[in-house]
Structures are given as structure tokens and as C-alpha cells.
Specification:
This protein is an alpha+beta fold. Helix content is 18%, strand content 34%.
Length: 394
């Protein structure tokens, strides 16, 4: 009993002395207790490198990149920083001092004129730039990769055009897609009803109907990044690489709506894509002879000169088209032996072709040998093409 009592006494003494020690090391201030510390402990802040921005400049078939790397975390000293980028995913070790790569908290480092390659078989897609710290802890990996949109011309799908228009209104398209197939790429047709483009970047073309008795005029338009990014495009169907078919109206020759089409092929693995030129299917209204005279003079920039005797019994002096008809007559573009002009009749392709050639003094020409069909009505698009081409080459 006495032995146990002594042990309790000793325990109480130890507890009491310990309490005195703790109390003596406690600061009482305004009811708050705070322990005195004899030393401070440094707080560790991990490195957090990220790619802040990448800007590209195209040089020939390559890209030159400026890459901004920023440290959003703690100081990095003597690290091994790996930069990996481009289609070939080449990588290099970046060094900015003798022992590796160092970057203080909140600071940035710019990699200038870094050469990147983009797949030569594709027009557009993404170039990825990535950084890694193999021997260090990078706090947040989500900002280590940066994707840049790229687009390059010319179009890799070539010569999109109309091969033929079947009698039921189906349009047979043709194009060349070298180095691309449905095995590696998904082919799609995109359409819009309105497009703002430079007319100087378009060229007139024609296709015959299946029966051969009609001519359909359309335009090939050079593609561009701005045109591709037009928000009005919508995918309307997937296609193969062989000439294929699309139906936009029961009778394309009388369709009052405008249609713009292009083809895109998207790589199934990378998402990179190729595009074609754009084709414009616009209404081709037949021209009366009166409308032809007016358009010829205005679009051809022919100076009006109606100081000539009017030999046409069906062209009254006060008619809106009289100055234009008399101007063409004075230029000897209308046959002298005609007593009537027939202003309401349709202008034929053959006569329009002859008058344009004679005015611009073009010699022997083989334009539209295949589909001239001189007896068919001339459209505004057809006349516009003739004047543009022969005026340019006159």
C-alpha cells in the first residue's frame, strides 16, 4: 500500500512540474493563448510551369513559333525542361543556365523562332506544343499543353466541279483527292446559301445535262481561311472519294436559290483536315436581247454613244434599252441588214460569243468548244464570263 502511495505522489509531482513548465511558456494576451516559438519553418511551394501563349508565323511550308512559358508556382532551379511539339513530335531540352533550366516564381521565359512542321497532306488542324519536367514535380499538368489552330493553302482536294446534271436534277460532282481515302478520312459536303467572296477569286465553268440539251453555268471559287470559318456552313452529307451525287432541287436550271458547296476530308485519328475549292451554283437567268445590250455596255465599260440613226423599227427612242442598242449598232456589233432588233427575244450563246469576240478583237478562240451550243439562250453569268475573260486578254 505504502509503495503504491509513493508512486502516486511522484506522479503528481511530475505532472505539477510539467504544468508549471507549460504555463511559463504560454503568453496570455487579451484572452488568447499563443505558444512562443524559438524558430520558423519554411513553407514548400511546388513548381507549376505552364504554356501561357503560342504565336505562329508561316514560313514556306513550315511554322515559326514563339512560346511563352510561365512559372505559376514556386521557384524552379536547375530543372530538365523538355519541349515537345509539331507533327513529328520532336523534343528538345531547354536550358537557360549552365546547369539546366531555372525560372523564378511569377516569371516567364520565351522560346523564340521554334520550328514546327504540319502535315503536308492536310490543309488545317491543330499543332500541339507540350512541356514536361521529368525529374521534378510539376504541380498542375493541365497547363503543360497548348493547341494552336493552323490553316494553309492551296486546297489539297483539287478541281471540285460539276461533271454532269442528270435529267432528274441530280448533280454529279467530281474531284481529285490524292493521298486521301475513306480508310483514313471521313469525307463530308458542306453547304451555305450565302457567301461573301472576292469575285476575282472565282472562275466560270459549265456542265451539260445528261441529255445534252441544256447547259448549266457555275463558278469555282478559291478557298480561304476566312471563307472556311464562315459560320453559315452546315454539313449536309458524307461522301466517298469517287465522283458522287447530290440533289439540291428537282430542276437546278430553274432553281431560284443560290448554293455554295465545298468538300472536307477529316483524318479519323488526328482530326486534321483537307478542303476543296468552293463551287457556286447561282441562278442562271436567260437574257433578253434588250437586257443583253444593257449588260454588255455597262459590264464591258463601253462608252454610250447613241448619236446614230436608229434603223430598228421595234426600238423606240424613249425605250430604256434604246441607248444601249444604238451604241452596239454604231460599233458594228449588230448586223446592218437587220430591220428589227427583237428586244424581247432570248439572246443566243452564239451571237453573244461573236459580239464579245468582235468588240475585244479576239482572234481564233477555242472557248467552250465542247458545250458552246450556239442556239441555246445566253445567261447573265455566261456573258459576264465572256466579257471578263476577253477584256482581260484583249
Amino acid at each position: 500500500m505504502r509503495s503504491g502511495f509513493k508512486k502516486k505522489i511522484i506522479l503528481y509531482v511530475v505532472i505539477g512540474l510539467g504544468s508549471i513548465f507549460v504555463v511559463n511558456n504560454v503568453k496570455i494576451s487579451e484572452g488568447n493563448f499563443g505558444l512562443f516559438r524559438t524558430s520558423s519553418i519554411a513553407v514548400f511551394e511546388p513548381v507549376d510551369l505552364g504554356i501561357e501563349k503560342v504565336t505562329l508565323k508561316k514560313i514556306a511550308d513550315k511554322y515559326s513559333a514563339n512560346i511563352v512559358i510561365t512559372n505559376y508556382g514556386g521557384d524552379l532551379k536547375n530543372g530538365q525542361l523538355v519541349l515537345q511539339a509539331g507533327d513529328e513530335e520532336k523534343h528538345v531540352y531547354l536550358k537557360n543556365d549552365d546547369r539546366g533550366f531555372s525560372l523564378a516564381k511569377g516569371k516567364s521565359y520565351i522560346v523564340e523562332n521554334y520550328e514546327l512542321l504540319f502535315g503536308g497532306d492536310y490543309n488545317g488542324g491543330k499543332l500541339s506544343v507540350e512541356i514536361k519536367l521529368p525529374e521534378k514535380v510539376d504541380y498542375f499538368a493541365g497547363n503543360n499543353k497548348y493547341d494552336v489552330d493552323v490553316f494553309t493553302l492551296p486546297a489539297k482536294i483539287e478541281a471540285l466541279g460539276i461533271d454532269e446534271i442528270e435529267d432528274d436534277g441530280t448533280i454529279k460532282l467530281a474531284f481529285e483527292a490524292k493521298n486521301h481515302s475513306t480508310i483514313t478520312d471521313d469525307f463530308e459536303i458542306y453547304k451555305t446559301a450565302a457567301l461573301n467572296f472576292d469575285e476575282n477569286e472565282s472562275r466560270y465553268a459549265e456542265a451539260a445535262s445528261e441529255s445534252g440539251d441544256k447547259i448549266f453555268g457555275y463558278y469555282r471559287i478559291k478557298n480561304s481561311e476566312d471563307l472556311i470559318k464562315n459560320n453559315n456552313w452546315s454539313q449536309i452529307q458524307s461522301v466517298g472519294t469517287d465522283p458522287h451525287f447530290i440533289k439540291l432541287a428537282s430542276d437546278p436550271f430553274k432553281d431560284p436559290a443560290a448554293h455554295y458547296l465545298y468538300i472536307k476530308a477529316i483524318n479519323k485519328e488526328t482530326g486534321n483536315y483537307v478542303v476543296s475549292n468552293i463551287i457556286s451554283l447561282v441562278p442562271g437567268k436567260d437574257l433578253t436581247r434588250a437586257a443583253f445590250a444593257k449588260f454588255f455596255v455597262e459590264y464591258g465599260e463601253v462608252k454610250i454613244d447613241d448619236d446614230v440613226k436608229n434603223n430598228f423599227a421595234d426600238v423606240a427612242e424613249d425605250e430604256w434599252y434604246a441607248p444601249y442598242v444604238k451604241t452596239l449598232s454604231k460599233l458594228d456589233l449588230i448586223k446592218d441588214d437587220q430591220s428589227e432588233f427583237h428586244p424581247e427575244k432570248m439572246m443566243t450563246r452564239g451571237e453573244a460569243f461573236r459580239m464579245v469576240k468582235d468588240y475585244f478583237e479576239v482572234g481564233e478562240d477555242k472557248a467552250f468548244d465542247k458545250n458552246l451550243q450556239p442556239e441555246k439562250p445566253a445567261t447573265k453569268n455566261y456573258l459576264k464570263y465572256l466579257i471578263y475573260e476577253y477584256k482581260k486578254n484583249s
